[in-house]
Amino acid sequence: MLSRVADSIYWMSRYIERAENVARFVDVNLNLMLDFPGSSDQQWQPLVDITGDTEQFAERYGEACQTSVIQFLTFDTKNPNSILSCVRAARESARSVREIISSAMWEHLNGSYLMLTAAAGDDGEVSDPHELFASVKTASQAFTGITDTTMTHNEGWHFCRLGRQLERADKTSRILDVKYFLLLPKVDDVGTTVDDVQWAAVLRSASAFEMYHKRHGRISPTRIVEFLLLDHDFPRAIHHSLKAARESVHAITETPTAMFRGPVEQLLGLLCSELAYAQVDEIIAGGLHEYLDALQTKMNQVGTHIYDTFFSGRGAVPKRQSQRRGDVVRTR
Amino acid sequence: MTFAHYDPEEFFDEMFARAGAPRLAAHALTQVIDALPPGEIERRQRSAERALLAMGITFNVYGEDEGTERIFPFDLIPRIVAAAEWRTIERGLKQRIHALNLFINDIYHDRRILKDGVIPAYVLETAKSLRAPCAGLNPPRGIWCHVTGTDLVRHSDGQVYVLEDNLRCPSGVSYVLQNRNVMKRTFPQVFAASRIRPVDDYPSHLRATLEHLAPDGVESPRVVVLTPGPYNSAYFEHSFLALQMGVELVEGRDLVASDGFVWMRTTKGFERVDVIYRRVDDDFLDPTVFRADSMLGVPGLMEVYIAGRVALANAPGTGVADDKVIYAYVPKIVKYYLNEDIILPNVPTYICAEDRDRKYVLENIASLVVKAANESGGYGMLVGPHSSKSEQAAFAAKIEENPRNYIAQPTLSLSRVPTIVDGSFEGRHVDLRPYILYGKDIFVLPGGLTRVALKKGSLVVNSSQGGGSKDTWVLAGDPRVETDRPEVDAVMTPALRG
Asked: For chain A, which residues make up each domain, given as ranges?
């Protein structure tokens, strides 16, 4: 498969997944505000932090408040990680590989983009955020379903899944990191309603509320961390996402799963074993933030190696100007 | 909706000899249509349009919002070409392409045709599309123009003329294939009853033509289609042809010239490319040889090409034959290289660079069609009878300023085909672009793109100027006659060696 084509498919699905994640955690935060009327704008800054665009936001908007953050994360076309920018970038990627993906995928993605531009209107203001975020989430989930049922599960499909799973693992780790850091120090709130509601919001940000309760019943920060980080079977758990990513890499390279050739397979293999044999208590004892920070660095390395291995072209050929996108996974 | 009230008027009509009298070849179709229940033809027209939309058969419109895609308007009533007439067209096209290939090869080598005084030297020296870096080039198998789309028109005298040669990157063949697809679904009973020659094998002929160019010793050559990218107006066609041929669709940035070969970047490393069907113009192919600011090409491509390690179709430099002044000399070119009279005549052409012709053109501009020598797509032209005095004056000034860049032709009365307009049949003017492939031998696709000027009275059929398309049915005719025909094709294989 052409490197450019693989690159486009990978980013197409990463961008769609990114848009869904942004929609989900902004929506959860809006809901949270309704439970705490009159609460301060402090609740909005973490959302910007989760996307990793803190500096850009401060430069252009200054103080974080509900209006500015929602604007920044939904229809701001200058923010490459806003929902609109993500869906537009996904559409552009899809457009250049239309003969590779199924026409149902293209038509759905094109329709989602047109829906968003219509919602943004001329002024780019968000008139009905709840409805908007709901339709972005549904659009992304439908795209995943259409992809799985209309595209042959070939190399291209695996690049699609690889992009989606890495993006998902990245976003879940950021949600966990930022929220845990903010929630934990407030010892006064431990065991109170405030605390439970906040932690429930963390779960909802990862669409994990119901599935967590089926598994663990009551709210417990440690169990929540365990669920989002280490669970084998929950589709948004980091461990599960990385396992799926690894499967796709091996399907692409045809390397037997117990072995590795090259840094992508090695690093993903190490990460998966680490998460498979980790204990949540040990992780928290050693500092969750430090652990997640190291995890994110490794996931970024996986992204870099994927670029080098599959998309950049290899061999004894003179290097040409890099075709890499502007907003490849950034390091913190 | 029937043909009962259809009036061909004073024009040559491809379907009717006169009102109420369909031509023999169109008889079966007119009967089927006339027997349809009321409203049925409109219903089928709508269903055909929906099918085209669903298949995503669109073209991009320049100058509008990024990637605006439009449906190429399609009309259900086909143009039908009788078997005997097609045989003449086919022979004429083979002759023309054979001669033009020899001409291109000559002008990039010895230029015998200039030395022998058949074409004045100034014509070539001032041809914008002449590519100096191609001098001395020997393309694989001696073939320059692998894919050609030649525009034909029929005048009210009933004669088919060649209007234009397109040896650069002719587009439109994907519509031929898709239109046929839609028509088979719409009129299955007509297809069953008539003997309409198939066009579906074009992609496999194209692939064979391209594989024929592969460097010696390459057993299963890798062929790719090179596109300028998704924003090109013909991107749909590029991806369609790649898909139909089962080859990769690449952009310039997917390719790299290194170690004397051209490679494409894949997820499993570099893979060698042997033949490139390029839909990128000469100017943008290789920034180290042609336009330095090109972002679409591959630096170093020409070096590998000249060394014979990759083939390009069409060869760079073939565009010189599209120059409309050189077009005027094609009858002489055919006579010079093949010692034959031309089978499909040119439209009489006045060369503005010649004093006598220019004088005539300036005096009669109101009745002529004036064309720029190097434009296509219906741009840069004046249709005298449809223009105002000030437009004529503006063109006259342009001709005086740069006579070499203009030719003029009498305004032809293009033939018409019944077309569905607001619930009834009306005659609309058409042209025809058949596609010719030059590989082991010369192949003419039995069919082609019939373009139709949808505006009443309009003579401009280009899609960018409000044109649409129709399916073209070439009938197979009587098989006994087919086997009796003299084998002229064998003579067409060129003696050239690369």
From this structure: 1-151, 161-314
State whether residue B84 sits within 8 Å of chain A by CB.
no
Residues within 8 A of A (CB atoms), B 250-269 only = 250-251, 253-254, 256, 258-259, 263-269
pLDDT the model gives residue A190: 52
Give the separation between CA A87 and CA A109, rounded to whole angstroms: 8
- Look at strands B406-410 and B350-351 and give their pairing: antiparallel
The owner of tokens 């010719």 is: B436
pLDDT at B257: 94
DSSP per-residue codes, A113-142: HHHHHHHHTTT---S-HHHHHHHHHHHHHH
B244 close to A (CB below 8 A): no
Stronger pLDDT, B128 or A8, i.e. the higher one: A8
Q: Which of B249, B263, B270 sits opposite A99 (nearest CB)?
A: B249
B67 in contact with chain A, both atoms CB, cutoff 8 A: yes
Say whether A2 and B243 touch across the interface (CB within 8 A): no
- Check CB contact of B217 with chain A, cutoff 8 Å: no
Distance separating alpha carbons of residues B280 and B272, to the nearest angstrom? 20
pLDDT at A53: 85
Burial A277-305 (b: 16+ CB within 10 A, else e): eeebeebbeeebeebbeebbebbbbbbbb
pLDDT at A186: 53
Residues 55-94 (A) with a CB less than 8 A from some CB of B:
none
A314·B253 Cβ contact <8 A: no
What digits encode the pLDDT tens for the residues A226-276?
999 999 999 999 999 999 999 999 999 999 988 999 999 999 999 999 999
Contacts of A311 in chain B (CB under 8 A): 267
What does the alpha-carbon distance between residue B113 and residue B102 come to, in Å, rounded to a whole number? Answer: 10
Dump pLDDT digits (tens) for A25-43. 888 888 877 777 666 667 7
Sequence-ordered list of residues with C-beta below 8 angstroms from that of A49, at least 6 positions apart, any chain = A178
Closest CA to B416 of B9, B3, B2: B9
Asked if the ipTM is above 0.85, the reply is: no
Q: Tell which residue, B167, B489, B159, has the closest CA to residue B345.
A: B159
Task: Judge whether residue B4 has pLDDT over 80.
Answer: yes
Whether B320 has a pLDDT exceeding 80, the answer reads: yes
Q: What is the DSSP letter of A289?
A: H
d(Cα B214, Cα A288) in Å, to the nearest integer? 60
* Of the ranges B70-79, B202-211, B481-490, the best mean pLDDT one: B202-211
pLDDT digits (tens, 9 = 90+) for A180-209: 766 655 545 555 666 778 888 888 888 888
Whether residue B20 has pLDDT greater than 50: yes
Residue that the structure tokens 């010692």 belong to: B339
Span between the terminal Cα atoms of chain B, in Å: 57
| Residue B258 main-chain phi, psi, to 5 deg | -160, 150
- Summary mean pLDDT of chain B: 88
Please state, in angstroms and as integers, the Cα–Cα distance from residue A151 to each residue in A92, A154, A157, B21, following that order. Answer: 19, 8, 7, 52
Note if the pTM is more than 0.90. Answer: no
3-class secondary structure, B116: coil
Q: Is A319 helix (H, G, I), strand (E, B) or coil?
A: coil
CB contact under 8 Å between B266 and A3, yes or no, is yes
Strands (E), B150-227: 151-154, 160-164, 223-226
Which residues of chain A make contact with B240, given a CB cutoff of 8 A?
Answer: 99
Give yes or no for a contact between A300 and A329, defined as CB atoms under 8 angstroms apart: yes
d(CA A262, CA B268): 12
> What letter represents residue B319's amino acid?
G
**CA-to-CA distance for B95 and B492, rounded, in angstroms?**
7
Residues B50 and B441: beta-carbon distance below 8 Å: no
